[in-house]
Amino acid sequence: MELKLKTLTITDYDALDENKVKLSYELSTDPLVERYVFHDVDRWFRNTGKVDKMQTGDTLMIKDSVSDELVGFFKFHTFFDSSVSMDYGVSSRFRNKGYGTKILLEVSDYFLDNGITDIVLCIDMKNEASRKCALKAGFVQDTFGYNIDRFVKEKSK
């Protein structure tokens, strides 16, 4: 199953789809993903659900709706029933092309349009690219922490 957003599509991981397996491996061995997100993203994909039954802890792939190319992923956790904490990553082939901002913008808008009141990102202070993407996608820097900054996007009132 797939879920079409504005310019992107959320899609399931499928161990039988060669392109999805390649992206999973690429992200799992990408030094930036390892440093700023998680050291075993491949495991996230293997232990996840389906788009039509999205639930906390799922990791889903993102593709460009026009080119149909896989460009990245996001993982989310719900807390307090109406808040989401999100991680994301962009394939190295698609960095510096606006996909980080698009993923954050379109996925957060989807959640905010469907009952979530706020989205939280925790971004390493040294990850300047991700910090810029968050700000461009409408997130506001909320707090400064030890090496991690928190960015929040809330539903408009």
CATH architecture: 3-Layer(aba) Sandwich
Helical coverage, percent range: 25-40%
The topology string of helices and strands comes to EEHHHEEEHEHEE
Rg computed from alpha carbons, rounded to a whole number of angstroms: 14 Å
Overall, the morphology is globular
> The biggest beta sheet, please?
8 strands, mixed
Count of β-strands:
8
* SS content category: alpha+beta
Mean pLDDT across residues: 84
Beta fraction of the residues? 25-35%
CATH superfamily (homologous) name = Gcn5-related N-acetyltransferase (GNAT)
Question: How are the elements arranged and paired?
Answer:
Elements: E1 2-4, E2 8-11, H1 18-28, H2 31-36, H3 41-46, E3 59-64, E4 70-79, E5 83-90, H4 99-113, E6 118-124, H5 128-136, E7 140-144, E8 148-154
Parallel strand pairs: 5-6
Antiparallel strand pairs: 1-2, 2-3, 3-4, 4-5, 6-8, 7-8
Helix pairs in contact: 4-5
Question: Can you describe this structure?
Answer:
The chain has 157 residues and is of the alpha+beta class. It has a single domain (2-154), classed as Gcn5-related N-acetyltransferase (GNAT) (Aminopeptidase, 3-Layer(aba) Sandwich), CATH 3.40.630. It is built from 5 helices and 8 strands; from the N terminus they run E-E-H-H-H-E-E-E-H-E-H-E-E. The chain has helices spanning 18-28, 31-36, 41-46, 99-113, 128-136; strands at residues 2-4, 8-11, 59-64, 70-79, 83-90, 118-124, 140-144, 148-154. It has an 8-stranded mixed β-sheet with strand order 1-2-3-4-5-6-8-7, with helices on both faces. A hairpin with a 3-residue loop joins strand 4 and strand 5 (83-90). Helix 4 (99-113) packs across helix 5 (128-136). It is globular. The model has no long low-confidence stretch (mean pLDDT 84).
